Records
---
Amino acid sequence: MRRFFTGLLAAGLMMTLAGCGSGETAAPAGGTLYAMDTVMNFAYYNTDGGDADTAYTQTTQEIERLEQLLSRTRSDSEISQLNGAGGAPTIVDGEVAAIIADALTYSTATDGAFDITIAPVVTAWGFTTDHQQVPEQSELDRLLKSVDYRRVSVDGDTVTLGAGQSIDLGGIAKGYASDRVKAILEKNGITSAMASLGGNVYVRGSKPDGSAWRVAVQDPKNTAAYAGVLSLTDSFAVTSGGYQRYFTQDGKTYHHIIDPATGAPAESGLTSVTIISPDNGTMCDAFSTALFVMGEKKAIDFWRTGGYNFEMVLITADGRVLVSEGAAKHFEQEKGSGYAYETIPRTAP
Ligand code: ADP
Ligand code: MG
């Protein structure tokens, strides 16, 4: 069997391993797309008579549309207008209002570990530009005063931010886009497909040869390797890792997942969090960011008692790979990775 990494190694994101079988399967529709600040890969198969070419055309158009709608670095986006409104109630597209409302739900669920009002802090670190830097603590303290999801309100299509607030949907936009990809595949009758939007993967059905899709969880220490492989059908799998976007200053590494409690890159003892769910890519994206911020103990508690349906793979800085009970059935350890593997039981021992 030959494996191909769907181009994600260079970008430092989750890899999807698609086994190329004996060659009976026609080439899929799809390709590589650079959008939403990441590398995306798609492979759609015509197995059940679905129109894979149309589905892929619609996918590229949809992602372009969402980038336009949700980016805060595009000055003409709805989010930029909202961020520039100075706290005045702003009517936005109904879809944008719904995404913001969803984001607030995930903030409440995670007790603020996921918080889209982190935007001014992300800006201070320079993660939205090419010039990253360590901000002064006094500046972070000042900016943190405006970080609080509870001051954002959504009333129908009207969104109001608190004084000094702005929002950043970077922690959820690709997950939302993956939900839209799923809808496009459904509409076009595609029953075998793989979509990888940076670290956000959606697999539909199984591979054309009937076997499960193989989604690799990258090794944060060595992004050319992986820590394990998930065999998945009809699932979203989203990874957040401190190794995905970072810079180094005075020998120290700073990554792009910010702890809203400190304003600094989260140092929770986790180096990677993968969330798996059958039906909600947006949730996976929000929770991968949130659980990275929470750290091992809180993340496990949240998985057990938070009331949301998902499975997960956590990688710790001290060399352990923790696989939740429901994910363990689908997870293959990578021999020789140097990690110790543990299954997290559904109920606390
Ligand atoms: P990636 O975008 O690399 O896949 P994530 O899904 O973890 O990674 O999202 C990180 C992005 O989300 C950051 O670039 C920033 O825009 C935003 N962000 C950072 N920290 C948080 C946080 N605690 N809550 C919500 N969004 C965050
Ligand atoms: Mg995320």
---
Amino acid sequence: MSELLADGMLAGLDEIAGTGRDARRGGYSRHVWQAAELELRAWFVERAGRIGLDVETDRNGNIWAWWGTPGPDAVVTGSHLDSVPGGGAYDGPLGVVSALDAIARLQAAGFTPSRPCAILVFAEEEGSRFGIACLGSRLMTGALGADRARALVDADGVTLAEAAVRAGLDPAHLGTDREALERIGLFVELHVEQGRGLIDLGQPVAVASSILAHGRWRLTVTGQGNHAGATLMADRRDPMVAAARAVLAVQDAASARPGTRATVGRMNIVPGGTNVIASSVQAWLDARAETDEETRALLGEITALVDEAVAENGCSVAVVEESWAGSVHFDPELRDRFSAALGGVPALPTGAGHDAGVLAASVPSAMLFVRNPTGISHSPEEFATADDCVAGVEALEKLLRTLL
Ligand code: GLV
Ligand code: MN
Ligand code: MN
């Protein structure tokens, strides 16, 4: 068991522990096709090669590492290597490293698969660079159109099409990839848990039951840019004040609806000067709920409250939907079969989005969660103990053995 570990974590995580550290925010900032993420891609290619896997990158920038001949009805496992800004070490990489370790252990045991098997590393799962989460899986399945994807722009004004070229992809080839999708017989993603479910149950591993519906909306609040010293308080149309009240409205609306979640985690103040009343503020809303209808109802309530708050401050607001993902209920037969194969581990819902959730609309998909003793994620405090990570690898290995 200890052959998996180095420095108190999975050896693979230790190998990438220095890549993409964010000195300003803490944690890691590893964004698609930027230096740190490219370094992780190169690391993955080398690491997969070390255990004899054949690596290829698909038309959407997702990396596949095949154990044996690529083919239809493959058992595919994996996750992502990108992170949120200032994210933790486990969200994504744990699933990739566990996949490498599970296959290495099967190989070491002399196991020969009877169906194709691959590790899949998805591009831009967090949407931290281009704004749409699960970009690689959405493109592959057609949930996101190629034209829309190509036109996405990052914070530096670089389009996704331009970034793709720089990463060696042909943007003309982005989009639905039936060939890739048709090779997947079943997909299983191992992921660090992003809540307290396994802490409360006192167990290291669970299978996933469902994912909340969720979406992202860009709110542009427009007021009147002006001088901070020369403008009387009564004469202002300050979009910062309107945006602050809008954030409170977001909190009020979600707090009044049990189980729903709404967050404003990012703002862009234009022009952003200490002695300048802003002319506009962009704020990004992330809203989630159990069902699609409830999420839409929450959004409706938020936009009504935001409209009111913004108007009271002499400003206006435009709301644009940037992405939408309906709720996901993982195949109950697969979920129960996996739970039973792992000795009856619990099934847990999650409020976090995953590529497995996107794939679930097209192919049988499942997830494994590994306990996170802090219960915190999308933060440097995200964690999983070495013992629990090993339990995750063993669980994945066991599933692969039964599936292959
Ligand atoms: C991805 O981690 C998300 O849930 O936003
Ligand atoms: Mn995440
Ligand atoms: Mn993730």
